[in-house]
Design goal:
Layout: E1 16-23, H1 40-55, H2 59-64, E2 67-68, E3 71-78, E4 87-95, E5 101-109, E6 115-124, E7 126-127, H3 138-148
Antiparallel strand pairs: 1-4, 2-7, 3-6, 4-5, 5-6
């Protein structure tokens, strides 16, 4: 069993999840026909965008509330390659955090459901003057309150 990057503490609400289906495009592979490692950040981005849209915390939602959410950390663990024209899925998982940040975990599976790549990103919250936010602003606090109340499941 694979260990999560962001352990859940007692009392935390369940992580929020979304799955995106994709097919490896020609432009994403190297001369050997396997996905070049530098393409994986965009795969993670596909799931992050889908999560944001599904739960009302997309990049434009955040920006329209006077905030930015730049990526502070990104990590990948490669387990097996994906190949040209292969269908695959990207599962995006948003983990609960009391801190003013977004902890996303990603699981990429190949056409057979085999683990291909896992990883995570951490996004910090900033105001539009690029000041790091240490506390959740009202928009994010409302989102967290809905999450904790089970309204997002």
């Amino acid at each position: 069993m694979r260990k999560t990057y962001f352990p859940t503490r007692s009392g935390d609400p369940a992580p929020l999840r979304v799955t995106v289906e994709r097919v490896v495009r020609f432009e994403e592979v190297d001369p050997l026909g396997i996905v070049w490692h530098g393409r994986y950040p965009s795969y993670f981005e596909d799931a992050r965008v889908a999560l944001g849209e599904k739960y009302g915390i997309g990049y434009l939602d955040i920006y329209n509330q006077g905030m930015l959410a730049p990526v502070k950390q990104m990590h990948f663990d490669y387990h097996r390659p994906l190949r040209f024209s292969e269908p695959f899925t990207i599962e995006g998982i948003l983990h609960w955090s009391e801190a003013a940040r977004l902890n996303h975990e990603f699981i990429i599976r190949d056409r057979d459901g085999q683990l291909a790549t896992t990883g995570y990103t951490v996004q910090m919250l900033m105001d539009t003057k690029e000041n790091v936010l240490l506390l959740h602003p009202p928009f994010m606090q409302r989102f967290l309150n809905r999450w904790r109340a089970g309204e997002l499941a």
